[in-house]
Amino acid sequence: MVKSTITFGPQHPVFPEPIQFILKVVDEKVVLAEPQIGYVHRGIEKAFELNDPKDNIFLAERICGICPAPHTTAYVRGVESLMGIEAPPRAKYIRTIMNELNRIHSHILWAGLLGDAIGFESYFMQTWNYREKVLDAIEKISGHRVTYAMNAIGGVRRDMTNEQLRGLEKTMDYVESSLENIEDVMKDYTIKKRTQGIGILTEEEARRDGAVGPTARASGISQDLRTSGYDAYGDLKFEPVVVNNCDSYGRFAVRWQELKQSIDLIRQCIVKMPSGEILTKSNNPMNGEAISRVEAPRGELFYYIKGNGSKKLERVKVRTPTFANIIPTVTMLSKGCQVADVSVIVLSMDPCISCTER
Amino acid sequence: MGIVEKSRLKSPWILHYDCSSCNGCDIEILACLTPYYDIERFGILSKGNPKHSDVLLVTGGVNHRNKTVLKNLYDQMPAPKVVIAIGACGSTGGIFHNCYNILGGADKIVPVDVYVPGCPPRPEAIIDGVVKALDKLKHLQNGTWKEPETGPIVVETAVGAKPAPAAKYANAAPAPTLNSQPTNKEA
To answer: Does pLDDT of B183 surpass 60?
Structure first.
C-alpha cells in the first residue's frame, strides 16, 4: 500500500487556532498522526518571573481567552497559599460563579464549533446567539465580555449586588430554556452519524494516556477536580457527569449535561451566597512552593508556583488540560479514521492551543 | 466600476489568522459572524482560503515560528488586499511585548492598513475596522489612495456602546447599510 502524507493546518478553516497535524494516509484511512506545535508559543512562563505578582493576574488571564476564570483562580490560589492567606467566603462564591459562567460560555462555544465542523451551520449560529446572553451576564458582573479581571490575590476585585444576582438568575432561566430548544440536536440522525463510533478512546487508553476533563469523563472515568471541594464547591451538591460511550458523541453528551450542571451550580451559589468582605489584604512574603489545581472547562488545570521571599516569583509552571489531551487525541486519530473525520475528532477534545503552548 | 470591483466592495471575504493570540480576539471575530452582531449584513463572509480573500485579519503578536506562515498567507492573497491588526497584541505585541518569543505586532512582517486596539476589542470595533478597511480597498482599486497625514488608520473604540441586535431590524425599513450603522439611539 502506498502511504501518502497530508498536512492538516496550521491555517485551516475548521481550527480557530493554528496547530498542524501531519497525517500519514493509506487510501482515505489515517494510519499515523503527528502533531506539530509551536505556532502560538509566546514565553508567558518566563514573563511571569519578570512582572509584579499582582500584574501577573492579567497575564494569567491572557494565557487563554476562552477560559480566563480558571487560569486566574488557579494562579491566585497558588499565590494565596504561598502567602498563607485565604479568600473570604463571599469571594469564594463569586469566584465559583465566574468559573461556572465561564464553563457555560466555553461549552456552548464548543458545541457551536462542532456544528460548524460537521457542516451544521444553522446550529452553530443558534448556539452562538444564546452564548451572547451569557457574555452579557458576565459583562454586567465584571465589566468585560471576554477578560473578567475578577480575581485578586486574597479575594475578588468586584462585589456582586443583589440586582446583579437576580439578573443572573433570569439569565440562567433564559439559557436553560434556550438550550432545551436545541436539545433535539442530540437525537439528530446526521449528528449521530458524524460522531457515534468516531474517535474511540476506551477507558484503559484514557487512563494510560492520561486524558483529563470531559474527554476522560466520556470514557467512563469519574474524575472531576471540583469534587475536591476547592472554593465554594465543597458546599454545593453535584455529581461528576460520566458516560460510557467512549466516542465523540459521548464527549458531546458530557458537555451538554455539564451545561445543565453549571446552571444548577450557579443557582445554588445565588441561594447560598454569604455576606461579608470580599478581599483579604496581606503583605506576607511569598516563600516556598505551591501547587494549585482547578477544574477548567477542558479538564484539570495545574499551576506550580515557587517564590523565594523576594518581590517577584522565581518560577511559574502551567500544565493545561489540552496538553494532557494531545496524546489521547493522537491515539484516537491513529486508529484508522477517515480524513473527513479528523476535524471532528480533534474538535471533540476541545483543543485550546494558546493555553497549551503559552 | 466593473462587476468584480463592485462585488469586492459589497461582499468582501475575510481571512483570519491567529498568530499567537490568547483566543480572546479570535472568539470576538467569530462572534461578529453570528446572529447577534451579524457581519454578514454587510456581505462580509469568513473564508479559510487565502486565494479567495480580500481582507486579512491578524490577531496576536508575531513569533519566530509563525512569521513565515503569515507572510505566505499574505503573499497568496490576490491584490488589492488590506490587512487589519486586531487587538493590542496584533498592533504592538501588547501584554506579551517582553516575552522572548514575540517579535512585535503584525506590522513587523506584513504592511498593516487598519489598527483595531483593545484587549480584546469589542465586536463593534472589529466591524468598524473592516468597514474602514473597505474604504481603503475602494481607493486602492481605483488607484486614488493617499496616505493620511494623521498617520495610520486606527479605530476609535467606544467603551460600552452596543448596537441593537440585527434581528430587530428584520421588519424595519430601510435595512441598515454601510452608511447607516445601527447606533445606541436607534435601539
So the answer is: no
Task: Choose among B18, B63, B95: nearest Cβ to A58.
Answer: B95
B167 pLDDT above the threshold of 50? no
Report the C-alpha gap between A248 and A335 in whole angstroms.
Answer: 14
CATH 1.10.645.10 fits A40-321, yes or no: yes
CB contact under 8 A, B31 and A354: no
- Rounded average pLDDT over B72-85: 88
Q: Do B61 and A47 touch (CB under 8 A)?
A: no
Topology given in CATH for the domain delimited by B3-169? Rossmann fold (3.40.50)
Structural contact between residues B111 and B145, judged by C-beta atoms closer than 8 angstroms: no
Q: β-strands B114-116, B153-154: how paired?
A: parallel
* Interface pTM, i.e. ipTM: 0.80
State how far the Cα of B18 lies from the Cα of B89, in Å rounded to an integer. 11
Interchain contact, B23 vs A38, CB within 8 Å: no
pLDDT by residue (tens digit) across A47-71?
888 888 888 888 888 888 888 899 9
Distance, CA of B112 to CA of B74 (rounded, Å): 11
In degrees, rounded to 5, the angle at the alpha carbon of residue A197 between the alpha carbons of residues A195 and A201 is: 105
Q: Which residues of B touch A125 (CB under 8 A)?
A: 34-35
In angstroms, the CA A312 to CA A297 distance is 29
Cell output for A320: 493545561
Residue of A nearest to B25 (CA): A65
Number of C-beta neighbours around residue B92 at 10 A:
19
pLDDT at B154 over 50: yes
Give all strands (DSSP E) within chain B, no chain letters: 13-18, 45-46, 55-59, 62-63, 82-86, 102-104, 114-116, 153-154
Provide the pLDDT for residue B161. Answer: 44
Residue A161 to residues A117, A273, A333, B136: CA-CA distances in angstroms? 40, 11, 48, 46
Pairing between β-strand B114-116 and β-strand B82-86 as defined by DSSP bridges: parallel
The tens digit of pLDDT for each residue in A168-223 reads 888 899 888 988 888 888 888 888 888 888 888 888 888 898 889 888 888 888 88
Burial of A224 (0-12, 13-18, 19+ CB in 10 A): buried
Cβ contact, residue pair A65, B63, below 8 Å: no
The answer to whether the beta carbons of residues A351 and A35 sit under 8 Å apart is no
- A28/A223 Cα distance (integer angstroms): 35
pLDDT score, position B179: 43
Question: What pLDDT was estimated at residue A304?
Answer: 92
Among the ranges given (A61-65, A244-248, B139-143, B177-181), the one the predictor scored with the smallest mean pLDDT: B177-181
* Alpha carbon distances (Å) from A279 to A91, A153, A159, A239, B7: 7, 8, 10, 30, 56
Q: What angle do CA A71, B124, B83 make, to 5 degrees?
A: 90
- Residue ranges of the domains in chain A? 40-321
